[in-house]
Amino acid sequence: MFLVTKHQMEFSSFLPLRSSPTRKSRKRKLQRTKQAEQEAQAEVEKYKQKANKISKDSNNNISETRKTLRARVVVTLRIKGMKQSVASNKQAVIAHLLQLVCGIKQELHYN
To answer: Where is the composition biased (Basic residues) (predicted)?
Structure first.
């Protein structure tokens, strides 16, 4: 039987790997663990990108909504102004048109 000292046990991890079934399975397990970690990291990154996209889209929608509301307010104010202008000038325009239509002047055309 062969004895292993405490010192040898502590530094056994630094010894080169021999091809034994146990070491091979440990190596495969380590590779699977690393691969799973990489996949998890990729999934986290994908989730972050998706969350950022949703955030940007909602911010864009909010700003577009604000712009739309501002445009509606501006249009509504313009329409109100036009209606007031029409109401205040309506009688004067009708009187002017009636004067042009009914006030016939007899003139000769120079052609």
So the answer is: 21-32
